Amino acid sequence: MEKPINIRQITETQRLVLREFELNDAQNIWKLNSDPEVIKYTGDPPFETIEKAREFLENYEEYKKNGFGRWAVITKTTNSFIGWCGLKLNEQNLVDLGYRFFKKEWNKGYATEAAAASLEYGFMHLNLNEIIGRVASENKGSIKVLEKLSMKYWKMDSCKGIENSLYYRITKEQYLQNKKIED
To answer: Is the pLDDT of residue 18 over 50?
Structure first.
Protein backbone atom coordinates (compact mmCIF):
# COMPACT_ATOMS: atom_id res chain seq x y z
CA MET A 1 0.00 0.00 0.00
CA GLU A 2 1.30 3.46 -0.93
CA LYS A 3 1.96 5.99 1.77
CA PRO A 4 -0.50 8.89 1.70
CA ILE A 5 1.09 11.98 0.26
CA ASN A 6 0.30 15.45 1.51
CA ILE A 7 -0.77 17.33 -1.59
CA ARG A 8 -0.33 21.01 -1.13
CA GLN A 9 -2.90 23.49 -2.35
CA ILE A 10 -1.06 26.46 -3.79
CA THR A 11 -3.80 28.99 -4.36
CA GLU A 12 -7.40 29.35 -5.43
CA THR A 13 -9.60 31.64 -7.45
CA GLN A 14 -13.34 32.11 -7.54
CA ARG A 15 -13.76 28.97 -9.67
CA LEU A 16 -10.49 27.07 -9.41
CA VAL A 17 -8.03 25.41 -7.05
CA LEU A 18 -4.37 25.10 -8.04
CA ARG A 19 -2.56 22.31 -6.22
CA GLU A 20 0.58 20.26 -6.56
CA PHE A 21 0.39 17.25 -8.84
CA GLU A 22 -0.35 13.88 -7.27
CA LEU A 23 0.19 10.39 -8.70
CA ASN A 24 -3.56 10.02 -9.23
CA ASP A 25 -3.28 12.76 -11.89
CA ALA A 26 -1.43 10.36 -14.22
CA GLN A 27 -4.48 9.39 -16.30
CA ASN A 28 -5.54 13.02 -16.73
CA ILE A 29 -2.01 14.14 -17.63
CA TRP A 30 -1.79 11.30 -20.16
CA LYS A 31 -5.20 12.21 -21.66
CA LEU A 32 -4.31 15.90 -21.80
CA ASN A 33 -1.04 15.25 -23.64
CA SER A 34 -2.72 12.70 -25.95
CA ASP A 35 -4.80 15.37 -27.66
CA PRO A 36 -2.83 16.59 -30.71
CA GLU A 37 -4.60 19.96 -30.59
CA VAL A 38 -3.66 20.51 -26.94
CA ILE A 39 0.05 19.86 -27.53
CA LYS A 40 0.16 21.29 -31.07
CA TYR A 41 2.24 24.33 -30.10
CA THR A 42 4.13 22.96 -27.09
CA GLY A 43 7.08 21.09 -28.56
CA ASP A 44 6.23 18.24 -26.16
CA PRO A 45 5.59 14.70 -27.36
CA PRO A 46 2.58 12.86 -25.93
CA PHE A 47 3.16 10.33 -23.15
CA GLU A 48 3.16 6.86 -24.70
CA THR A 49 1.19 5.31 -21.84
CA ILE A 50 -0.50 6.20 -18.57
CA GLU A 51 2.45 4.50 -16.85
CA LYS A 52 4.86 6.95 -18.56
CA ALA A 53 2.74 9.85 -17.29
CA ARG A 54 2.88 8.31 -13.81
CA GLU A 55 6.68 8.00 -14.05
CA PHE A 56 6.83 11.67 -15.03
CA LEU A 57 4.83 12.60 -11.93
CA GLU A 58 6.90 10.31 -9.67
CA ASN A 59 10.06 12.05 -10.89
CA TYR A 60 8.67 15.60 -10.91
CA GLU A 61 11.18 17.44 -8.72
CA GLU A 62 10.25 21.08 -9.40
CA TYR A 63 8.51 21.64 -6.05
CA LYS A 64 11.51 20.41 -4.06
CA LYS A 65 14.12 21.95 -6.33
CA ASN A 66 12.62 25.41 -6.89
CA GLY A 67 9.72 25.74 -4.46
CA PHE A 68 7.25 25.96 -7.34
CA GLY A 69 6.26 24.22 -10.55
CA ARG A 70 3.29 23.39 -12.72
CA TRP A 71 0.12 22.76 -10.71
CA ALA A 72 -3.05 20.77 -11.32
CA VAL A 73 -6.08 22.97 -11.96
CA ILE A 74 -9.26 21.69 -10.34
CA THR A 75 -12.74 23.17 -10.71
CA LYS A 76 -14.46 23.97 -7.43
CA THR A 77 -17.93 23.07 -8.71
CA THR A 78 -17.13 19.52 -9.91
CA ASN A 79 -13.76 18.87 -8.26
CA SER A 80 -12.51 17.88 -11.75
CA PHE A 81 -8.98 18.07 -13.12
CA ILE A 82 -9.24 20.35 -16.17
CA GLY A 83 -5.58 21.01 -16.91
CA TRP A 84 -2.48 22.48 -15.38
CA CYS A 85 -0.94 25.90 -14.93
CA GLY A 86 2.01 27.29 -13.06
CA LEU A 87 5.57 28.47 -12.99
CA LYS A 88 8.76 26.72 -14.01
CA LEU A 89 12.43 27.61 -14.00
CA ASN A 90 13.32 27.08 -17.65
CA GLU A 91 16.57 26.15 -19.39
CA GLN A 92 17.53 29.86 -19.60
CA ASN A 93 17.09 30.24 -15.82
CA LEU A 94 13.98 32.39 -16.29
CA VAL A 95 10.69 31.76 -14.51
CA ASP A 96 8.22 30.71 -17.17
CA LEU A 97 4.42 30.80 -16.89
CA GLY A 98 2.77 27.86 -18.61
CA TYR A 99 -0.68 26.31 -18.89
CA ARG A 100 -2.45 23.50 -20.68
CA PHE A 101 -6.16 22.64 -20.54
CA PHE A 102 -8.45 20.01 -22.00
CA LYS A 103 -9.92 21.30 -25.25
CA LYS A 104 -13.49 21.11 -23.89
CA GLU A 105 -12.41 23.71 -21.28
CA TRP A 106 -11.06 26.24 -23.79
CA ASN A 107 -12.74 29.65 -24.11
CA LYS A 108 -14.16 29.58 -20.57
CA GLY A 109 -11.56 31.92 -19.08
CA TYR A 110 -9.85 29.17 -17.08
CA ALA A 111 -6.38 29.73 -18.58
CA THR A 112 -6.49 33.45 -17.84
CA GLU A 113 -7.88 32.89 -14.34
CA ALA A 114 -5.31 30.22 -13.42
CA ALA A 115 -2.44 32.14 -15.02
CA ALA A 116 -3.40 35.33 -13.14
CA ALA A 117 -3.40 33.35 -9.88
CA SER A 118 0.03 31.95 -10.79
CA LEU A 119 1.41 35.45 -11.40
CA GLU A 120 -0.04 36.63 -8.08
CA TYR A 121 1.55 33.66 -6.29
CA GLY A 122 4.88 34.18 -8.05
CA PHE A 123 5.14 37.88 -7.27
CA MET A 124 3.45 38.07 -3.88
CA HIS A 125 4.43 34.74 -2.24
CA LEU A 126 7.65 33.77 -4.00
CA ASN A 127 8.83 37.37 -4.36
CA LEU A 128 9.93 36.85 -7.96
CA ASN A 129 11.10 39.91 -9.90
CA GLU A 130 10.05 38.82 -13.39
CA ILE A 131 7.94 36.13 -15.05
CA ILE A 132 8.00 35.31 -18.74
CA GLY A 133 5.63 33.48 -21.05
CA ARG A 134 6.65 31.74 -24.27
CA VAL A 135 4.21 30.95 -27.05
CA ALA A 136 4.32 29.73 -30.65
CA SER A 137 3.51 32.67 -32.91
CA GLU A 138 0.55 30.71 -34.40
CA ASN A 139 -1.02 30.06 -30.99
CA LYS A 140 -3.44 32.99 -31.01
CA GLY A 141 -5.40 31.77 -27.95
CA SER A 142 -2.34 31.68 -25.70
CA ILE A 143 -1.10 35.02 -27.01
CA LYS A 144 -4.46 36.50 -26.01
CA VAL A 145 -4.12 35.05 -22.49
CA LEU A 146 -0.64 36.55 -22.00
CA GLU A 147 -1.83 39.94 -23.24
CA LYS A 148 -4.88 39.86 -20.92
CA LEU A 149 -2.38 39.41 -18.08
CA SER A 150 -0.64 42.65 -19.18
CA MET A 151 2.47 40.74 -20.19
CA LYS A 152 4.37 42.62 -22.90
CA TYR A 153 6.03 41.25 -26.01
CA TRP A 154 9.76 41.02 -25.40
CA LYS A 155 11.42 39.13 -28.25
CA MET A 156 11.19 36.36 -30.80
CA ASP A 157 13.31 33.25 -30.28
CA SER A 158 13.06 29.50 -30.56
CA CYS A 159 11.49 27.48 -27.75
CA LYS A 160 11.63 23.69 -27.48
CA GLY A 161 12.35 23.40 -31.19
CA ILE A 162 9.58 25.80 -32.21
CA GLU A 163 11.10 28.58 -34.29
CA ASN A 164 9.58 32.07 -34.15
CA SER A 165 8.24 31.65 -30.63
CA LEU A 166 7.14 34.87 -29.00
CA TYR A 167 8.47 35.74 -25.57
CA TYR A 168 6.40 37.93 -23.26
CA ARG A 169 7.33 39.18 -19.82
CA ILE A 170 6.12 41.16 -16.85
CA THR A 171 8.07 42.49 -13.89
CA LYS A 172 6.84 42.62 -10.33
CA GLU A 173 6.79 46.41 -10.56
CA GLN A 174 4.60 46.31 -13.70
CA TYR A 175 2.35 43.73 -12.08
CA LEU A 176 1.87 45.89 -8.98
CA GLN A 177 1.18 48.98 -11.11
CA ASN A 178 -1.47 47.10 -13.10
CA LYS A 179 -3.00 45.76 -9.90
CA LYS A 180 -3.18 49.28 -8.44
CA ILE A 181 -4.94 50.52 -11.59
CA GLU A 182 -7.47 47.64 -11.42
CA ASP A 183 -8.25 48.33 -7.74
So the answer is: yes
